[in-house]
Write a structure and sequence with these properties.
The protein is of the alpha+beta class. Helices cover about 30% and strands about 45% of the residues. Helix 1 packs parallel to helix 3.
C-alpha cells in the first residue's frame, strides 16, 4: 500500500465521558479527535498514568508477544477516514539474521495508539486524512 506523504502526530490528551472517549491528536496547529469506547479510554488512561493492574490486559499481552518474538513496533499510521470512522495500520519490524521484515497489520486506531504510546513508537497520518479531519478547539 502506498501511503504518500506522512504527517507526524502528537498525542495531546484523552477526554472521558460515560458514553465515549475522545483521543485528541495534533499535527502542527491542527488538533482532531478520535472517538472510541469508554472502556478502551479507561485502559488507555491506565497506561498513561502507569497505574498498577492486577492482571495483564490485552495490550500487555500483545506487547509481551512482540517483545518475546523480538518484534518492534516501528510506527502507526492512520491511513483513512470514512464517515467519521478512522482506519489505521501498525508497522512491525523483525530482524532475523541479515533479514529485516516489515509487517503491516490493519488495526483500530484506538488499539494502535495505545500500543504506540506503550512502545514509544511514532504516530502518523496521511495528508489526505489530516485534510478530512474536523479540528477541535479547547
Amino acid at each position: 500500500m502506498m501511503l504518500g506523504h506522512l504527517i507526524q502526530l502528537n498525542f495531546d490528551k484523552i477526554m472521558q465521558t460515560r458514553s465515549y472517549t475522545m483521543i485528541i491528536l495534533g499535527a502542527g496547529e491542527k488538533r482532531f479527535a478520535i472517538y472510541t469506547d469508554p472502556s478502551l479510554g479507561r485502559t488507555l488512561q491506565l497506561y498513561l498514568t502507569g497505574a498498577e493492574k492486577p492482571r495483564p490486559l490485552t495490550h500487555d499481552l500483545i506487547d509481551s508477544i512482540l517483545l518475546g518474538m523480538d518484534i518492534r513496533l516501528k510506527q502507526v499510521v492512520i491511513i483513512d477516514l470514512q464517515d467519521t470512522i478512522y482506519h489505521s495500520r501498525i508497522f512491525l519490524e523483525q530482524q532475523q539474521g541479515d533479514t529485516r521484515r516489515i509487517i503491516e497489520i490493519d488495526a483500530r486506531p484506538s488499539d494502535s495508539i495505545t500500543l504506540a504510546l506503550m512502545q514509544n513508537a511514532p504516530l502518523y497520518c496521511t495528508q489526505e486524512v489530516l485534510d478530512k479531519t474536523i479540528p477541535v478547539e479547547d
